[in-house]
Write a structure and sequence with these properties.
Radius of gyration: 20 Å
Distance between the termini: 34 Å
Number of domains: 2
CATH class of the largest domain: Alpha Beta
Helix content: 40-55%
CATH architecture of the largest domain: Alpha-Beta Complex
CATH superfamily of the largest domain: Spore Coat Polysaccharide Biosynthesis Protein SpsA, Chain A
Number of strands: 9
Order of helices and strands: EHEHEHEEHEEHEHHEHHHH
Shape: globular
């Protein structure tokens, strides 16, 4: 089996058939196992998936039904059932574009040391019109991108299954940002990463993961837990000193977001965490307090400069 595509579904009866049908055509060149995990949908999503499976008898389709546990648990259930050499996680309202997965799998077939192949994505509106695009970061800047500005869509990252056997699945104990933690952990563990130019998936503009949307909240404790876990991962893989400044940029991003929403106490708590770790890597450290947090203009300038350096 070449490829296992894991599709978590929650209340997506109006988009799941289109996503499956269009994506099926994009991987016809590969022998593909489709694993659809219905995460306790309250609409007709499960039946829609079953109908699609019945109408495509030539494909290997496995439908798993479970009570609603969230996106991380749904993806882990699919991962446990996967038998393909390569793994892709597809959101239930996104559509795979032609060629990228066969090309990615071909690259990994030719070089056994490549554990991850990734590409960019397009954002589409409700009329399927492309409204903006995002190219993937260069291989030597991938970790920097993940830590600073890159929104990691699971649909554009193809994993070698043996890598995920080593790294483990999604953190079900994390109430938020499980995708980001999983991606960072896998990229740190991978022997080699390969970027493909272009785009691999159309992502709907509303973009919310319908499985976890109601469970997700950018609460201050969630953000703090994620930032601390990021430090632990970087230290575990000997990457802390190299990427601490990029972790700092992520902290500043959250501070800015909290301030924009009038959440000064939450911003101050993130600033406190930043200052705690800043003693370890900033020679000319700027103390973050409510009176001296980066103004929005400075933050925007910082991100623009950072983005230009890592593309």
């Amino acid at each position: 089996m070449d490829l296992s595509i894991i599709v978590p579904v929650y209340n997506r009866q109006h988009t799941i058939h289109q996503a499956l049908e269009a994506s099926r055509k994009a991987v016809d060149k590969l022998t593909t196992q489709w694993i659809i995990v219905d995460d306790g949908s309250e609409d007709a999503s499960a039946q829609t998936c079953q109908d699609w499976s019945d109408n495509n008898p030539g494909y290997q389709v496995e439908i798993i039904r479970q009570e609603n546990k969230g996106a991380a648990a749904a993806r882990n259930a699919g991962l446990s059932a996967a038998s393909g050499r390569y793994i892709l996680f597809l959101d239930s309202d996104d559509v795979l574009l032609p060629d990228w997965l066969p090309t990615a799998a071909g690259q990994m077939d030719q070089a056994d040391e490549i554990d991850i192949t990734y590409t960019g994505y397009r954002i589409i509106d409700g009329h399927n019109e492309v409204v903006r695009t995002s190219q993937a970061f260069k291989e030597d800047k991938a970790l920097q991108g993940i830590l600073t500005t890159w929104v990691t869509h699971p649909d554009v990252i193809l994993y070698r299954k043996t890598l995920l056997d080593k790294t483990g699945g999604f953190r079900e104990d994390m109430p938020a940002m499980q995708d980001h933690e999983f991606t960072l952990r896998a990229f740190l563990k991978a022997r080699k990463r390969k970027r493909l130019r272009g785009y691999g998936v159309d992502v709907r503009e509303e973009g919310a993961d319908r499985i976890s949307a109601e469970r997700f909240s950018k609460s201050q404790p969630d953000v703090i837990a994620f930032l601390k876990e990021t430090v632990n991962l970087l230290r575990e893989h000997g990457q802390w000193q190299q990427h601490a400044i990029h972790w700092q940029t992520r902290c500043e991003s959250y501070i800015y977001q909290f301030l924009r929403n009038g959440r000064k106490r939450d911003a101050a708590e993130v600033a406190r965490i930043l200052n705690t770790y800043a003693d370890q890597f900033l020679p000319d450290k700027v103390r973050f307090g409510l009176a001296r947090i980066l103004p929005p203009a400075a933050s925007s300038l910082w991100y623009r400069k950072t983005s230009r350096k890592i593309w």
